[in-house]
Amino acid sequence: KAGVTQTPRYLIKTRGQQVTLSCSPISGHRSVSWYQQTPGQGLQFLFEYFSETQRNKGNFPGRFSGRQFSNSRSEMNVSTLELGDSALYLCASSPDASNEKLFFGSGTQLSVL
Amino acid sequence: GENVEQHPSTLSVQEGDSAVIKCTYSDSASNYFPWYKQELGKRPQLIIDIRSNVGEKKDQRIAVTLNKTAKHFSLHITETQPEDSAVYFCAASLNEKLTFGTGTRLTIIP
Prior knowledge:
A: mainly beta, 7-stranded mixed sheet, B: 6-stranded mixed sheet
């Protein structure tokens, strides 16, 4: 089985731009979560989707949004980028609705200049 | 919501010695506690987990203990080896949401 795939691997943007990140979960996994990873802050929860519905949302501003498609693939969008948005964005999928065992992708490294 | 605190943030131990990482959580309704290991430049991977109805779980050189009354859980690694060097994250699950600690960078000194 292929693992969780995130694209692109690296992104460089400038302040004010917007960006879309993509995540393809493991086949059969219907839950997808997004995390922001920065040095010293660990893994900050952004949101989680199950069967195209957002079940949970973290404490991030409305500039961060996401969605999930019928094939369980997910995208997250960040609008009006700020320097502080520079981070590794990790997507994780889970095999069931409990969303307990997470399988992470390699992440998208976003740099905002 | 749930809040997870993790200590220490960095830990260096001599190869062959034991390492202990501790976490506390805030919501007594949390019922599942996994630990993830992230090697340099790689994705986090689940290494061990424990449910709230169990006090201790072992898997070869690693073990996790849970004290529900005190709302804390710990990761124990015995006979440490160089490949144990990594960042370790604890987490607590509440309402289908995993909240992670801030991580512990473990360095094994040869």
